[in-house]
Amino acid sequence: MSVEHFPIGQEMDVAYPNFKVSQTLLSVTQLRFEIKEGLFARTETVDLQVVPLGNRIFAVSWQEKDGATVTNVQDYDRGLVHSFATLPDGKFLRMTGPIVVTQPADRVPDDRPERNKALVLEAMTSLFQRHDASAVERLYAADYFQDNPSIPQGRDALQALVASLSQDVYYEPGLIVAEGDFVAIHGRIRGWANVPQVVIDLFPRRRRQDEVPVTAARGGVPMFDPEEGTLQTQLATS
After folding, report:
1. Which of 50, 2, 59, 51 is nearest to 26 (CA)?
2. Where is this region: Disordered (predicted)?
3. Distance between CA atoms of 205 and 184, rounded to whole angstroms?
4. CA distance linking residue 128 with residue 188, whole number of Å
5. Which domains does the chain have, with CATH numbers?
6. 3 state DSSP class of 211
7. By the 8 A CB rule, do 61 and 48 touch?
8. Considering the entire predicted model, what is its pTM?
9. Which residues of the chain have pLDDT under 50?
10. Which end of the chain is more exposed for a tag (fewer CB within 10 A), N or C?
């Protein structure tokens, strides 16, 4: 994530517990805010410093004409602003409010596919390479749905399954493709059955087949090539 992903041009309302502020993100160096009612009512354009913190999270800081200093942690993934302000009289405020976008940004870079690919890769390798059952709660949604009829539903069941896996179970990731919020990952898992299985996980669905050895009838083409992951890395960096 870089400052280039800051949503320039976006207009939004942030509803803090005691007042609402409207913000216009004019650039990576300027912001205009308006507070229509209450003790802090005014409109002002301030000079900014924007620091990307990762994903769609930015630290945005400025100083106002009356000497007040403000740091906002703007979290666009969760739709929240965490605000920390020191007023001219020394009073310190900590506030959190939801974001309501009233005018979208001039340009919205969509980095969801790359972020989602990284998340899926971490989710699969944490469970089926490293056998880290604690990763289930961190990486899988509370309403996680399992499409495999041989595995019980729910996150608790998945966590119990991972905790009980044999050390022989090992997952090899291959090609990963993503579009929008959808990710498909091709892989091979050993130790789950008597023969290696080739798996295609399309979040939220999965297809699994026993691996068939390379034969002349298949044209000498394997069902799973361990070099897929290397090829993907080369393509991404070329």
Report:
1. 50
2. 218-238
3. 9
4. 10
5. 3-103 (2.40.128.20), 112-237 (3.10.450.50)
6. coil
7. yes
8. 0.50
9. 206-207, 217-218, 231, 233-238
10. C
